[in-house]
Amino acid sequence: MDDYSFRPGGSLKLKGDRKKKKKSRTEEERAIAHEEAQRAIRAAEIAEREQAARSVSREAGDKSGSAAEDGEETSSGTGKKKKKTAAEEKFDKIQEERRRERAKKNALKSHKDRVAEFNASLDRLSEHHDMPRIGPG
């Protein structure tokens, strides 16, 4: 038997490292978790609809609403939020449109297309260590 013939297998076992056993879930627990997830999704959709309705009413020029409707008060009602100016709102709207356009453009490309486009752009660039020909020959 050679000195190097013994090779222990498996992963390195650290002192004090306790493996946590994964708790098996029953069918009822899975159903409850699924229902909670569905409830959370519905709540998010409702909040999104309310926010969209608020932004539509704000864009329509509904400035006569109360301070709470305009978003000037916080949820606790003690402080006031800083109201955005028209220029800030326009800037945010344009930025959001640009993000959507960029996402649409990137969603249409596959990874292969992105790599091909990147390689083409690299081919167009000159390399910094390429020396132009100098002199005769």
Automatic annotation (TrEMBL):
Bias type Basic residues, positions: 101-112
Bias type Basic and acidic residues, positions: 25-39, 45-62, 85-100, 124-137
Residues making up the signal peptide according to the UniProt record: none
Superkingdom, natural source: Eukaryota
Annotated Gene Ontology cellular component terms: nucleolus
InterPro entries: FAM32A (IPR013865)
Chain segments carrying region Disordered: 1-137
TM annotation in the entry: none
Full protein name: DUF1754-domain-containing protein
Protein source organism: Naganishia liquefaciens
